[in-house]
Amino acid sequence: MDLPVNGVSELVLEVEEMDRAVEFWSETLGFPILEQWNDPEADVTDEGTVWATWLYVGGNTRLGLWLPRDFTTSDLKQKEQPVSSWPATALYDEGGEHVHFALDVDDADFETAREQIEQSGLSTTVREREHIPSRSLYFKDTEDNIIELYTRSIKDTYQIDTTG
C-alpha cells in the first residue's frame, strides 16, 4: 500500500521550557514563528503562558514546540481507546505522554488515503475544520503513536513562499 502523501506536514516536539526552545529554534536556527497558542483552558504543565509554538521549517512543513500536557485520569483512559471512539471535540495527541506527527496529503487524495488506512483494519477518526479549511485523519501505529494525515496548506494558511 502506497499512501498518497507528499511528505511530513508537521512534527511536534515536547519541550520543558518554551522560551528556551523558541530561542533555539527561531533565533539560533532561524526558523520563523508562524503562530503561538495561549489557551487558558489548556491542560498544560505551565499555565498562563504560551503552551504551543509553530515554526516554519520549509516546504509544507511546520514544527510544533509544545509544553507537556497534564492529562486527567479520565483523559488517560480515553486516550488508550481506539481513536474512532474519542469524543468529537477531544484529541489526545498533545504533549505529555505523547507527541504526534502529521503527513501532508492533498485534499484530492484524502478519501483515497482514508480508505487505504481503514481497509488495513485501523481505527480512525476524522476532524474537519471550518476556521482553517483542512481535514485530518488520525490513527495509531503499532506502538500507539498517533499519526495524522493532514490537508492543511502552509502556503495558503500563512501566505508564504514554500518553494525556496
Helix-strand makeup class: alpha+beta
Strand order within the widest beta sheet: 2-3-4-1-5-8-7-6
The biggest beta sheet reads: 8 strands, mixed
Give the N-to-C terminal Cα separation: 31 Å
**Range of helix content:** 10-25%
Q: Give Rg in angstroms.
A: 16 Å
**Topology, number of strands:** 8
Tally of DSSP helical segments = 4
What percent strand?
25-35%
Average pLDDT works out at 81
Listing every helix as H and every strand as E from the N terminus to the C terminus, the arrangement reads EHEEEHEHEEEH
Shape: globular
Which runs of at least 5 residues are low in confidence (pLDDT < 50)?
A: 94-98
Give an overview in words.
- The protein is α+β, with helices and mostly antiparallel strands and 164 residues long.
- It has four helices and eight strands, in the order E-H-E-E-E-H-E-H-E-E-E-H.
- It has an eight-stranded mixed beta sheet, covered by helices on one side.
- It is globular and about 45 Å long.
Write the layout of secondary structure elements.
Layout: E1 7-14, H1 18-28, E2 33-37, E3 52-56, E4 62-66, H2 73-79, E5 101-104, H3 110-119, E6 125-129, E7 134-140, E8 146-150, H4 154-158
Parallel strand pairs: 1-4, 5-8
Antiparallel strand pairs: 1-5, 2-3, 3-4, 6-7, 7-8
